Amino acid sequence: MSLTFLGRLARTCAQPSRSFRIIGSSRYLATKPAPSFPVIPDCPSPTCNCAPTPALPEDLPIDHKTTLNGLISNYAQQVLVCTGKDDWPSKIETEDEGDNLAADLRKLIGPKGVYSDPFHNISVLNASFPSTPSVTPSTSAYILPEFKYVPNIPRSSSEALEGLVKAYLLPETLHPAHGESSDLSDRLTRNTAYQQFIPGVRDVKNVFVLICGHGGRDMRCGMLGPVLRDEFRARLPEVGVEVLEGPANETEEGRSDNGDVRSARVGLISHIGGHKFAGNVIIYLPPQMKTRDGKRHPLAGHGIWYGRVEPKHVQGIVNETVMKGNVIKEFFRGAIRRDGEILRL
Hints:
Elements: H1 3-13, E1 39-40, E2 77-82, H2 101-109, E3 122-127, E4 138-144, E5 148-154, H3 158-169, H4 182-188, E6 202-203, E7 207-212, H5 219-235, E8 242-243, E9 256-257, E10 260-261, E11 263-269, E12 281-284, E13 303-306, H6 314-324, E14 327-328, E15 332-336, E16 342-343
Parallel strand pairs: 1-14, 2-3, 7-11, 8-11
Antiparallel strand pairs: 2-4, 4-5, 5-6, 7-12, 9-10, 12-13, 13-15, 15-16
């Protein structure tokens, strides 16, 4: 079976298995299933003294006409490479200043990589989070929505890089479209034996607020991203969520009490698509998360994609989406569940 055919088939099969709609009348309940999460139409007006929205270049307007729903990348997992930088070249794999984990990973799992699977796309992004210090050259990474932290990926070891892919990034089972191929199954499915090459991987329980700030790719994201990051950092503590800074460590990651959220990481990330919808924000809510009244958070284990976010919207997003679990329809581009299913309204 050719890779070209598999690619075409993957794009067809990658469509979500369910259709989510906002129900306008009870007579449609039999044919149009309600969303699996609560939805509100608009973001509440702010009561805070929000930062102003920066003026963008006239030749780079924000698209306020296109429907956002469904404009989400098809991926099963995202790897956030902790670079400690706020911006990167237009194509992050061309970065030639020191270590480039993103480039090395894409050689393995990109379109021509030995572990490439058109039915299990892995998104590799750079992030502004710093890596955990190490005595040997290494890089840290987060894996979402699996909520894993990899503190040390030795950069001089090809075994460690392949261990990361084989132990944590590949699917547990082969997609049925591949057919019954033992060779493909051995190569393209997860193998926990490889965990020995990448020790120290641990679960994290933080909220993650990821904002596209890739100015090297598009100035709309480059200008809005840092302002939104500062606004989220200001608004989250107002609802009792500590914003963690600096390298991750075992004592702080996921500080919580019975699932009650206490901490978040807010950072800039590289290009995720849709510059014209800046600001672009992805919010990951940990699977153990509960609401303040002790109930399971409606969005626990989900990653929510928003577009056209301005500083004046951040307070509403924190209150409604982070704290209550309400998806705000006017910003919603799509969502991903922990099992990799892509959701649309």
